[in-house]
């Protein structure tokens, strides 16, 4: 496979017609599937194996619409991830604040319980407990 130098889309090999026949080799030309650029088959395919990826610009060029993520944000936009942890009604051993954030992870073998990690939102003290 080979890609168009102008827009980056794939070439399609087809029979040469009209003015394109002058560029053809053995009656065949390579035509870009997006921009319609016509190239000699041998010239277009001589590059060997080529790897390319396309982004939002290619999508906008090919289809005339702005690519969007399912949540409505622009394609390729980076957004901050905020995590909200579950809260348990236990006291912090350091400041006695009631209401600790917690999460669990399986750090030991499968037949043993999970490790619970606690964090105090008031003083920032963290500790863990094996269940």
Description:
By secondary structure, this protein is mostly beta strands. The chain folds into two domains: 11-63, no CATH class; 86-130, N-terminal domain of TfIIb, CATH 2.20.25. Helices cover 10% and strands 28% of the residues. The chain has two helices and seven strands; from the N terminus they run E-E-E-H-H-E-E-E-E. The chain has helices spanning 41-45, 56-63; strands spanning 11-15, 28-32, 38-40, 86-91, 98-105, 115-119, 126-130. The protein has a four-stranded antiparallel sheet with strand order 4-5-6-7, with no helix packed on it. It has a three-stranded antiparallel sheet with strand order 1-2-3. Strand 6 and strand 7 (126-130) form a beta hairpin. The longest helix has 8 residues, at 56-63. The model has no long low-confidence stretch (mean pLDDT 77).
Outline:
Helices cover 10% and strands 28% of the residues.
Helix share, percent: under 10%
Radius of gyration equals 30 Å
**How many domains, in number, for the residues?**
2
What is the molecular shape? Answer: elongated
Terminal Cα separation, in Å?
A: 56 Å
Mean pLDDT: 77
Number of strands: 7
Read across the widest sheet, the strand sequence of neighbours is: 4-5-6-7
Query: Which structural class fits the helix and strand makeup?
Result: mainly beta
Element-by-element helix/strand order: EEEHHEEEE
Give structural attributes.
2 domains, 2 helices, 7 strands, mainly beta, 28% strand, 3-stranded antiparallel beta sheet, 4-stranded antiparallel beta sheet
């Amino acid at each position: 496979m080979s890609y168009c130098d102008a827009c980056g889309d794939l070439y399609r090999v087809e029979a040469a017609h009209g003015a394109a026949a002058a560029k053809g080799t053995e009656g065949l030309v390579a035509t870009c599937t997006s921009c319609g650029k016509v190239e000699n088959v041998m010239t277009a395919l001589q590059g060997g194996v080529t790897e390319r990826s396309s982004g939002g610009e290619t999508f906008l060029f090919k289809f005339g619409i702005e690519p969007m993520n399912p949540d409505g944000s622009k394609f390729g936009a980076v957004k901050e991830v905020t995590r909200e942890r579950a809260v348990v009604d236990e006291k912090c051993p350091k400041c006695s604040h009631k209401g600790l954030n917690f999460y669990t992870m399986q750090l030991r073998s499968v037949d043993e319980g999970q490790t619970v990690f606690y964090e105090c939102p008031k003083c920032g003290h963290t500790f863990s407990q094996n269940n």
